[in-house]
Specification:
By secondary structure, the protein is of the alpha/beta class. 27% of the residues lie in helices and 27% in strands. The chain contains ten helices and 19 strands. It has a seven-stranded mixed sheet with strand order 15-14-13-16-17-19-18, with helices on both faces.
Length: 397
């Protein structure tokens, strides 16, 4: 059976509430690199100070020492992963996400699907796996095989993309590449719109599926409006705005590669349509050079300003500065969609930053919608840290 880690007295309380993380400070002793006893990625038993079994999980060096897989003293077999994947699939089917007009969605969202450290996104018949823990890295072949055995999902190729997500201190050799099969096509469909998915070189797993519902809401507000999509990446919001009947759509990203991908996605859905133009420019500089009233609808969806709590103060200043620029420049009666994907930034902190930005401009601003991540990015009720995407839709007079 597995090696055992013992909790300090009283530290079992969080596990009794089914929180999936065990912090290093909760352990009687923390195994160190080079110890013969436990290696990074090993499955370990966790017991209370009196020897009561608390469950099993993946061990790793760092603040989070164990990510719990089960709160029972069980063996983690290939069937364990298969059962968890099938439960995740059943939920996505119940949500109606797997349809001819929607072939892109998240199948596994880490702790939200009781598989901490694992992300699986589906693009047509390709699954893209992303591991955020050594344990899931070592289980990648098992997970890939189990994915191909799920009835109705029809996965033919599995791509592994974890070079940038695994803990760097683990020193794992984790090159990106296909675990099963090979995909010739990389076009997926979201709500009837086509998108080129670059899982080989793109960010995350190749596409930001977490904004699907928010893109649909934006489409509802786009008719006749002049739209500015900042930090456009693949141009998801821009494509939805075009279908929504926008008068014009401008997409901005500092990456020329992202701008090229946006142009390609616009052409894929609206060939020859002259309403769209993309710019490879710094977002703040672009807004500075934009005349007030040029746009009726502005999307502010930046990359995470704070990936760790140590960067929180600077991140909040960044959100305030960005939102002040957007609110100041949007036309009277305009709408601003603004987001934070920083897990370290709470919903209240983000809202306060946007409030401060609005007050700085002196304009009358109302909140129309408070947004979050979609249902295929579920939050484990015992792990509120899983709620990372925050958004507001503002009406600006």
């Amino acid at each position: 059976m597995y090696k055992t880690l013992t909790l300090k007295r009283g530290k079992e309380e969080s596990l009794l509430r089914f929180h999936p993380w065990v912090f290093s400070g909760a352990l009687v002793s923390m195994p160190q690199p080079g110890d013969d006893s436990i290696e990074e990625g090993d499955i370990v038993r966790v017991v209370a100070s009196d020897g009561r079994p608390m469950g099993v999980g993946h061990f790793q060096i760092g603040s989070i020492a164990v990510r719990m897989l089960a709160f029972d003293d069980i063996e983690i077999t290939p069937e364990f992963y298969g059962d968890a994947l099938r439960r995740a699939w059943q939920m996505r089917k119940a949500l109606g996400l797997h349809r001819p007009d929607n072939t892109a969605f998240r199948l596994v969202h880490g702790e939200g699907d009781f598989l901490p450290g694992l992300v699986v996104d589906i693009y047509g018949d390709t699954a893209v796996i992303q591991a955020h823990s050594p344990g899931m890295h070592f289980a990648r072949e098992i997970i890939a095989m189990q994915l191909t055995q799920i009835d109705g999902l029809d996965i033919r190729s599995v791509y592994y993309k974890s070079e940038t997500t695994l803990p760097y201190k683990a020193h794992l050799d984790a090159p990106n590449g296909y675990l099963i099969g090979h995909a010739d096509s990389s076009v997926a469909i979201e709500n009837g719109l086509k998108f080129n998915i670059d899982w080989l070189r793109g960010q995350k797993t190749g596409f930001f599926v977490d904004q699907r519902d928010n893109r649909s809401l934006l489409e509802h507000y786009s008719a006749g409006r002049r739209v500015l999509n900042m930090f456009c990446y693949t141009g998801g919001f821009s494509v939805y705005a075009m279908r929504g009947g926008a008068a014009k759509v401008h997409s901005v990203d500092s990456s020329s590669k992202a701008v090229a991908l946006t142009d390609a996605n616009i052409a894929l859905n609206f060939p020859g349509d002259t309403r769209h133009e993309a710019f490879a420019e710094d977002a703040f500089k672009f807004l500075d050079n934009t005349a007030t009233g040029d746009y009726d609808l502005i999307i502010l969806d930046p990359p995470a300003f704070a990936k760790h709590r140590s960067a929180l103060r600077n991140a909040l200043r960044g959100y305030q500065k960005l939102n002040a620029a957007g609110i100041a420049k949007v036309a009277p009666g305009g709408i601003v969609f603004t987001f934070s994907c920083s897990q370290a930034v709470s919903r209240e902190q983000f809202r306060l930053a946007v409030f401060s930005a609005a007050a700085q401009t002196g304009r009358r601003v109302r909140i129309l919608h408070q947004l979050t991540q979609p249902a295929d990015h579920p939050v484990n009720i015992y792990h509120p840290e899983g709620e990372y995407l925050k958004g507001l839709v503002l009406y600006v007079e």
